[in-house]
Specification:
about 280 residues; alpha/beta; 434 Repressor (Amino-terminal Domain); 6 strands; elongated; Cro/C1-type_HTH; DUF5753; Lambda_DNA-bd_dom_sf; XRE family transcriptional regulator; DNA binding
């Protein structure tokens, strides 16, 4: 039975060609209108607030997969779950600051990456559980899921058919730091060892007390037919993509200095494995 009182006046006009979120939202409004329900009525049936339905229909938000599955079931379609991953990824990318969007674009085209990290395992090598803990602070659940998915998607640059070369210099403190729980950290360290066993990936530990003190983590990006660029991490989650050759050269010299004080590949592997086994025993 169609509900009376549908407000069809002054509704925001939808543009399904704008982006994937808008396409999904337009489909939802079409199905809801055909059923004769208001946004509030559909929200009540599904167990969500009306504001969420409104924001999905106008393309402001992508639904989480659980809601997409509920919409599929209600309307007898596969459209919502098919579009949800793309809409969620699109939303996550839209939320990324411009400076980091530029970095991600360059990272995806890299032929070689050199990463120095002080605080935790680099995002390119993180497990879903570890990434969730690193990104958790101040995030709504739906936003957190999208950010984790976005981070994991970036791993394609080192896991595809023609992966980039990757060398990671990792402070010992980052290896020993518990993130989330000992179990999560142990699983992450074991995954790190799996990554390091790949022929195109090296992970070397900068031991505690090494006489080199960079102010922050950084990445050097090499791409075919292009000059190297660098990315430096800033306070509060900020950062900067550096293209000026003289500044990139300074960071490259810092990389060379760090490379002189790392443990050997075998010693780095042993330290990581020993720390992981220590978490298992605790």
């Amino acid at each position: 039975m169609k509900a009376s009182g549908l407000n069809l006046v002054n509704r925001k006009k939808l543009d399904p060609d704008k982006n994937i979120r808008s396409l999904l939202g337009a489909k939802l409004r079409k199905y809801r209108d055909a059923e004769g329900l208001t946004q509030a009525q559909l929200a009540a049936v599904l167990g969500y607030v009306p504001e969420l339905i409104s924001k999905i229909e106008t393309g402001e938000l992508a639904p989480v997969m659980k809601l997409a599955e509920a919409l599929n079931h209600r309307y007898g379609t596969e459209a919502f779950t098919e579009l949800q991953p793309h809409a969620g990824r699109e939303q996550a990318q839209a939320a990324v600051p411009e400076f980091f969007r530029s970095y991600i674009s360059r990272e995806a085209d890299a032929s070689a990456l050199r990463i120095y990290e002080q605080r935790h395992i680099p995002g390119l090598l993180q497990t879903p559980e570890y990434a969730t803990e690193v990104l958790r602070a101040g995030q709504r659940k739906s936003d957190l899921e999208r950010k984790v998915d976005g981070r994991l998607d970036r791993q394609a640059v080192i896991s595809g058919e023609d992966p980039a070369w990757l060398v990671v210099l990792l402070d010992e403190d980052a290896v020993r730091r518990v993130v989330g729980s000992p179990e999560i950290t142990r699983a992450q360290l074991l995954k790190l060892l799996d990554w390091a066993a790949e022929p195109h990936i090296s992970v070397l530990v900068v031991p505690a007390g090494a006489p080199v003190y960079p102010a922050s983590g950084f990445t050097l990006i090499s791409s075919e037919g292009a000059q190297d660029v660098a990315y430096t991490e800033g306070a509060g989650g900020g950062g900067e993509v550096i293209e000026l050759s003289s500044r990139v050269a300074e960071i490259r010299r810092l990389w060379d200095m760090l490379s002189q004080v790392t443990l050997s590949p075998a010693a780095s592997e042993k330290l990581i494995r020993d720390v992981a086994e220590g978490f298992e025993a605790s």
